[in-house]
Specification:
The chain is an alpha/beta fold. The chain is built from 16 helices and 22 strands. Pfam families: Aldedh.
Length: about 500
């Protein structure tokens, strides 16, 4: 695995920020080391933003929105840029596939597959430039003869993305924001800044007007400067619920807009007519994707009590077949966690689960044959009470908890007994039963027989899993403000 680090990093300017359409020097010599999660060696280093750098990026975005051409282009003109970005992103697929496993631990094959969605996101919003009703007539109800609803850009957006799936999460913030006419300050994660820097290079390549996209990398303390800056009209954040609460509180002080895609502790309800072995195979395979570092992971497996032991045994058997190791090895099914801190967190929950009285059926430690890297074993706990910490707290690692339920209504109650409501699934061969149960779940997404989280339609959560939706038409509406206009007569310039 040492040979991985001999590759040339496919990013040209690691020591600069992209601000105001130019690559600029940072205000300090501070840098951030990006560590290869498989080897624990430095992969590359990037400039670390300080408060002055954040302020400069916000200023560039503010000027570009208030004085530049971007917000004054037609939606069709902005859509042309999105089309160019889509093509450029597709051309950089292999670059992302080489960086992403080293930053976050995803398998290289999974990275390539996941990247298929990213250019499609930009193309989708480019198409909305023609079909979405940014301006439509309405009948006034309180006087006047002709009314219009105009959907206008919210303004300057601070987009903050995490380290797990940065290229995808950037796309579902940046694409709708750009189509709407917003300008953006993109704050990259210090653990995984590669995707954001690639997007800066793409912005330069396609000729986005100066200041429309600005890219900086900063740690969490300095990132608060972006959230507090009154020149930022909206913050779009994906990350932990704890950080989301802090952002929401800051934005509330100045009535700033925010959309929050936060944590989850999602439930898979396995009904009494489900194929237990088949469900276990699906759930185990899904949990190995990105080593369970997915907010929408189905980690609470709720089964009829009489099927509990069979489910635990099936999950344990499936995880026993998983080879953990180098994400560039075609024979490996699960890579490392992203950081040493994350591994320590996951290992802490191994101890918590045992201490709470759960049955450790598989995993619970580090692979014996891997000497370096932040690897853990895929883990199954059985006989879990839903009130326990391992069933209530987001672990963000490959840890499944199997929870017995008395009957279908008890399973629904258990699924809803959580501060989160991001994702869920119902396992049954009967789609009608899945619909009946799914309608009773307090969750932003409910799938059938698998993890069906779908950003193309829209993704987001109930309760403490967030505010708003990303993807789909709802994802565009998050970057628009409605303006009501009422006239004495129909304007001659309106052709609708």
């Amino acid at each position: 695995m040492d040979a991985q680090n001999t590759m040339t990093v496919p990013i040209d300017r690691l020591d600069k920020f992209y601000i105001g359409g130019r690559w600029v020097d940072p205000t300090s010599s501070d840098t951030i080391d990006v560590i290869d999660s498989s080897t624990e060696q430095v992969f590359f280093s990037v400039a670390e933003a300080r408060n002055a750098d954040i302020a400069r990026a916000v200023g560039a975005a503010r000027t570009a929105f208030d004085e530049g051409p971007w917000a004054r282009l037609t939606h069709a003109q902005r859509a042309e840029y999105l089309g160019a970005i889509s093509a450029a992103v597709r051309d950089r697929t292999e670059d992302v596939a080489q960086i992403w496993p080293r930053e976050s631990g995803i398998l290289v094959g999974a990275a390539r597959s996941a990247m298929v969605e990213v250019p499609q996101a930009y193309s989708y919003y480019a198409d909305l430039g023609e079909s979405f009703p940014f301006e439509e007539p309405v009948r006034p109800t309180g006087g006047g003869d002709f009314g219009l609803i105009r959907r206008e850009p919210v303004g300057v957006v601070g987009a903050i993305v995490p380290w797990n799936v940065p290229m995808t999460l950037i796309a579902y913030k940046l694409a709708p924001a750009l189509l709407a006419g917003c300008t953006v300050v993109l704050k990259a994660s210090p653990e995984a800044p590669g995707a954001a820097l690639i997007m800066a290079e793409i912005a330069e390549q396609v000729g986005l007007p100066d200041g429309v996209l600005n890219v900086v990398t900063a740690d969490r303390e300095v990132s608060e400067t972006l959230v507090r800056d009154p020149r930022v009209d909206k913050v779009a954040f994906t990350g932990s619920t704890a950080a989301g609460k802090a952002i929401a509180g800051i934005m509330a002080e100045r009535i700033g807009r925010c959309s929050l895609e936060l944590g989850g502790k999602s439930a898979a309800i396995v009904l009494d007519d489900a194929d237990i072995a088949g469900a276990a195979e699906v759930l185990a395979e899904a949990e190995c994707f990105l080593t369970g570092q997915i907010c929408g992971s189905l980690t609470r497996i709720i089964v009829p009590r009489r099927h509990h032991d069979a489910m635990v045994e099936s999950l344990a058997a499936a995880f026993a077949q998983v080879t953990v190791g180098d994400p560039f090895d075609a024979n490996v099914q699960m890579g490392p966690l992203a950081t040493e801190r994350q591994r320590q967190r996951v290992e802490g929950y191994f101890k918590i689960g045992v201490g709470e009285g759960a049955t450790l059926a598989a995993g619970g430690g580090r692979p014996n044959d891997v000497e370096r890297g932040w690897f853990v074993e895929p883990t199954v706990f059985g006989n879990v009470d839903n009130s326990w910490r391992i069933a209530q707290e987001e672990i963000f690692g490959p840890v499944l908890t199997v929870i017995p339920a008395k009957d279908e209504q008890d399973a629904i109650r258990i699924a809803n007994d959580s501060i989160y409501g991001l994702n869920a699934s119902v396992f049954t061969p009967d789609a009608d039963r899945a619909r009946v149960v799914g309608k009773q779940l307090r969750s932003g997404t409910v799938g059938h027989n698998n993890n069906r989280a779908d950003f193309g339609i829209g993704f987001g959560g109930f309760k403490q899993s967030g505010i708003g939706r990303e993807g789909g038409v709802a994802g565009l509406q998050a970057y628009l403000e409605n303006k009501t206009m009422i006239f004495d007569e129909k304007p001659t310039g309106f052709g609708g």
